[in-house]
Each structure stands twice: as structure tokens, then as C-alpha cells.
Amino acid sequence: MIFQHRAVKAGLNILLFEFRKLGTLQFLLPAGNLRDVFASRKRADVMLVTKSPVPLLHVAQQASVNELQPNNNQPVLHSFLKYGNLHHLRSGESLSLNAIKDYEIFLLTGIANPKPLIEELQKYSKNIHHEEFPDHHDFSSSEIRKFKSSFENSNQAEKIIITTEKDSQRLRAIGFEDLPVNLPVYFLPIEVELFEEDKITFDELILNYVKSNRRNR
Predict the structure, then answer these.
(1) Measuring CA to CA, which residue among 93, 121, 124 is closest to residue 108?
(2) Confidence class for position 3, pLDDT limits 50, 70, 90
(3) C-beta of residue 62 within 8 angstroms of C-beta of residue 31
(4) Is residue 5 part of a domain?
(5) Which helix (H) or strand (E) holds 182?
(6) Contact 113, 164 (CB under 8 A)
(7) How many CB atoms within 10 Å of residue 97?
(8) Quick one: DSSP state of residue 215?
(9) CB 39, CB 69: distance < 8 Å
């Protein structure tokens, strides 16, 4: 939760909250990750709960609303992560997640919260080796060589290396795509989707704002 660039007078404030962190004890920087107090949420025009479970049960939806305690004029909307097809880091070849069912997965991440990604991959395989680094981590050549060695030492025939789209850019920066073309290194694109009713509400909010604030459009 954060209001950035206080000097900028925003016309429409959309405040994001991660679903699984609602109701947990969180602290302000430097003790924690919060950059503003929880009470500041009352200044938002819209509260958007991200990374919600699919399907989103009514009781879970209501629980997040109860935790946020919005004002009468503050809509609480919910979004979820939508995973696309795997894309080979070098060749661009595309694979569906169903195509790697029961594969041995070597997962490489340098993001803040890889848990939703792991939960998605666990739908297709229970054999996942996760090499986790901090958010924004710059991979070193020695770290990649060690990871590659672990992959090559596996005796399973059907195996794959998966990373995030964000991390794939850092891998390219250190020349990881120059490894043998037959090495199965794929990244998994992620999109953010709103649930259907919330998407309709969100679109209406944006359109109404644009219509009433033509100078800022």
C-alpha cells in the first residue's frame, strides 16, 4: 500500500492491496515494507485487491472488504493473475502448461513473492526445484552455472527450466540465452485480470473520470 509522488495532485487514486497479506501484521519502513500507514487507505478513490484466488468465493471477497472497511463511496474491486503459455528464452517456441504435466521443473526467480507462481506450477507438477533470489536480484554467471549444473545432473528425461518474464530480461543481460539452444529455458508471462463484474465497474469508473475531467485525459 503506497501513495507515491505526494507532490503530484492525482485526479484518481487507485490503491492496491495483495489478497493474502490482508489481515496480516505489517510494518512501516524500515521495519517492514509499508510506505504509508494503513489509515491512509481512506484517501483512495478505488481499492483494488490483487492476486485473489480463483474462483473467488463470496466469503473470501467479503472478508477482504471487511478488512479494508471502505467508505460508502470507495469501491473495493478484485483482480487475479492469469498465466499465459511458456515461451522459450531463445527460440520463442511456445508451450502450454498442460504440455509440461508431470515434468521435473527447475524454477528460477528473483521477485518479491513467488508463491502464486509456485501454486500455479504445482497444478501441473509436484516435482519442483525452486532457486529463489531476492526481488530485483542481478544474477551472476556463477549462480547461473550452479543452477544449470543442478538441472543437468537430474536423470529425469522430461524436465524444464522456468523463470518469470521479468527475470528473463536479467538472464538475457548476462548472456544466459547464449547457452545451447536445446536447453529448455522458458519464461511464463503473467497478466492481471479483474473479475467480470469488477471489470465492468472499473471501466465505468475510468470512463466517468475521463468524461468529467477532459483536461487530464
Answers:
(1) 121
(2) low
(3) no
(4) no
(5) none
(6) no
(7) 18
(8) G
(9) no
Alpha helix stretches (DSSP H) within 95-195: 115-121, 141-152, 165-173
CATH number at residue 153: 3.40.50
Q: Residue 191's CB: how many other CB atoms inside 10 A? A: 10
- Alpha carbon distance 137, 111 (integer Å): 8
Question: Mapping DSSP to helix (H, G, I), strand (E, B) and coil, where does residue 206 land?
Answer: helix
Task: Answer yes or no: is 198 within a domain.
Answer: yes
What is d(CA 30, CA 35) in angstroms, rounded to the nearest whole number? 9
Number of domains into which the chain is organized:
2
| Same domain as 180, residue 118 | yes
- Grid coordinates representing 144 are 547461473
Assessment of whether the complete model's pTM goes beyond 0.85? no
Grid coordinates in use for 149?
549444473
**DSSP string covering 38-53:** GGGGGG-SEEEEES--
Show the domain range for 148.
Answer: 85-188
Phi, psi for residue 83 in degrees, rounded to 5: -95, 135
Q: What is the pLDDT of residues 134-162, one digit of tens each?
A: 998 988 888 888 998 999 999 999 999 99
